[in-house]
What does this fold into?
Amino acid sequence: MEELLLYFLLAPATAYALAALWVRRTMRAIAERELGFLRKTGATSRFFVFLALFTVPIVFGLTLLLQAQRVQETPVSDPVLRLLGWTFALAAALTVLSEAWIVVRWKAASFKDMFARVLVLTVIPETVVVWTLTICILAIGVLQRGPAEPPLSSASAAGVSLALEIMMLGSAAAPLSAFLSTRQPVLNMSTFRRVLLWTVAGDVLAVVCLALSVSQMPRT
It folds into this structure.
């Protein structure tokens, strides 16, 4: 299936580019108010740390692409494989852009004294793409049929599709976590715990959808 490259690599790579530009533009806006900000070694190195975090969905996508290419194309498996691609692409894009949203929201604090805490906040939406990867791997395991195995049944295909649709809904947990992490007017030592709890609360949706997706996945 030719469009697999679009789902597993192009979509997360595009989200990565947008997130990098968004964060870099924020840094330039900070530099307009704080002379010398961009020349500080700490600010630049921390920017690259965030960029490294944004690459995780691209690595996951490459892993899924290699596995998905081994799935035999049939009229039953093709729609499921396409849905799998859409599920991962959506989760990857929302995860990366949500992480960038958190960095952008806390502006200069993301590159100064609150860097470590902002990094913790940005890692929380990352769980969405991790759990989506888990469901996608389970789905590919069902789609791949050995020589001695019967073809994929319509019932199994329907179960996998439902599991993927549920996980697609769960990908909304990434922007939800990012939104809840911005509710405090400032981020400092006294407000960080509250911000962290709200960010984790947004991830509950992904946990629920993960459990429901696993329960819908065919066992054979």
Notes: The radius of gyration is 19 Å. The CA atoms of residues 91 and 171 lie 5 Å apart.
